[in-house]
């Protein structure tokens, strides 16, 4: 959904999928399209800074457990940027231009850089939050031997389905109720923080 908003609302770039964004940047350079190059370059810079700062949070030995507390902190940081994005988006009526456009590109790409750093740190086999290529490749490579019975294959299927559904729903909302998609994104990230906090940071004591 983030990429649906960024592509349809921020000058046809991606703020979550840096593979596609770098291709857009290269095409813009080749075509001498300065506005698109600046938009893509801004997204790439914001993403890298977000991932760098998250990397500092994750520095050091990885704690034991499925979901370390530092992952919750990083996703909470992402949520702050997604909420800020939604507020600015509404303030400009979902039609950003000038400096507001670059502010929104920076907020979105920075938050997504943090999210991707968290996903990398968690290193769950078959799970991706923004890149279909890796999940699809892994699924197809293992398909002859494992079919779809393995947990990694099932996660890959769900990841691809979630990415497709998010983009499709995001595109529909951008056409029908343009101000809503950023709030769906922010709410989803905040829900992730709440679930992580309840189940991993403060797990319910086991009954005896």
Can you put this structure into words, describing what you see?
The protein has eight helices and no strands. It has one domain. The model has no long low-confidence stretch (mean pLDDT 89). It has 208 residues and is an all-alpha fold. Helix 2 runs antiparallel to helix 3, helix 4 runs antiparallel to helix 5 and helix 6 runs antiparallel to helix 7. The longest helix is centred in the last third of the chain and has 26 residues.
Helix content: over 70%
Instruction: Give average pLDDT, whole number.
Output: 89
What Rg do the Cα atoms give? 18 Å
Share in β-strands: under 5%
Per DSSP E runs of 2 or more residues, the count of β-strands stands at: 0
Number of helices: 8
Shape by Cα distribution: globular
How many domains make up the 3D coordinates?
1
Low-confidence stretches: none
The ordered H/E elements are HHHHHHHH
Please identify the oligomeric state.
single chain
Query: What's the N-to-C terminus distance?
Result: 43 Å
- Structural class of the secondary elements? mainly alpha
- Report on the biggest sheet: none
């Amino acid at each position: 959904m983030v990429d649906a908003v960024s592509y349809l609302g921020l000058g046809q770039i991606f703020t979550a999928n840096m593979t596609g964004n770098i291709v857009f940047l290269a095409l813009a350079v080749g075509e001498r399209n300065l506005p698109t190059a600046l938009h893509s370059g801004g997204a790439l810079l914001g993403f890298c800074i977000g991932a760098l700062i998250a990397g500092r949070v994750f520095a050091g030995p990885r704690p034991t457990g499925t979901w370390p507390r530092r992952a919750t902190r990083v996703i909470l940081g992402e949520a702050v940027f997604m909420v800020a994005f939604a507020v600015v988006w509404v303030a400009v009526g979902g039609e950003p231009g000038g400096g507001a456009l670059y502010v929104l590109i920076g907020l979105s790409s920075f938050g997504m850089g943090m999210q991707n750093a968290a996903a990398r740190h968690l290193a769950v086999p078959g799970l991706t939050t923004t890149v279909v290529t890796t999940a699809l490749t892994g699924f197809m490579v293992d398909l002859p031997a494992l079919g779809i019975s393995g947990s990694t294959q099932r996660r890959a299927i769900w990841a691809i389905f979630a990415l497709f559904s998010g983009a499709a729903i995001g595109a529909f909302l951008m056409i029908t109720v343009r101000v809503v998609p950023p709030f769906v994104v922010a709410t989803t990230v905040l829900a992730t923080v709440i679930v992580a906090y309840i189940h991993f940071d403060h797990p319910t004591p086991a009954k005896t």
